[in-house]
User: Fold this.
Amino acid sequence: MDFILLIVGLALILAGANYLTDGASALAQRLRMPEFLIGLTIVAVGTSMPEMVVSVLSSINGQSDMAIGNVVGSNIFNVFMVLGLCSIIHPIAFTKENTRVDIPLCVLVSALFVLMAYDTLVGWGASNIISRTDGAIMLMLYIGLMYWTIRSAKRPEKDENAPKPMAWWLTIVMIVGGLCGLIFGGELFLDSATSIARKAGISESVIAITLVAGGTSLPELAASVVSFLKGKMGMALGNVVGSNIANILLILGTSSLIHPLTLGGITLFDLLVSLLTAVLLYLTSFTFRRRELDRAEGVIFLLLYAGYIYLLVR
Assistant:
């Protein structure tokens, strides 16, 4: 039965990604907003809802390592797996705004996460905990960052020859329906995969960083790959960068307000790998004098993810 639910969940994810991409693209056209910005905000927050549900429920139930591990694993998966696969399909071109503002912000937020989670590393406390104060700071930073990003976005020039935009009602239906398909499909896939893993005797912290994180990141993977196949590359990159920022500031901020989060089985190595993904993404924009993540670098990302998972489960 678990394997059947696995397949059904995957089918819902793929269908949801297709509708969400079309609806988000239509919204960008109607509002004359860059597709990257739509990916960074609406698509990113929508596809991060599974992480939100898992982390908040884990916080309520006192499972701090599950709440933090879910975010750590998701951020690693998003860069190494999602962008790695997308860049193999087609190299990902970065704009000047991506390399000067968007990706550096992701690096800074990831570094802040390490400092807030591992207090003993910098002498901020005697125990490693994300407190309610930390959570409030994270949420305020996220609100301020999103406000500034939307206000400072450059709108594309109006194209008089562009086809008539999709009707408002249909755009909303496609976005909401696509998100529902992604979230419910991801939940089915996650529950069945976790059940299989627990029966195999895998520990909770490893399940959180691998299966739970990978399962809750399936919406990002599906939405980004489908966006790429439809030629919406900016939306795919915005989805990953926005999701990683939302995972830390919005999701962990909310979770730690409910209940302070301790690391549990999550190690400093896991946190540093999460930071490394953002740093490497930034560095790829300067390799070989090309502002892009190319196929060779995508393969390296996939190999790094495989190596990280090997170290966890060996």
Q: What stands out?
A: Strands lie at 92-93, 129-130, 261-262, 292-293.
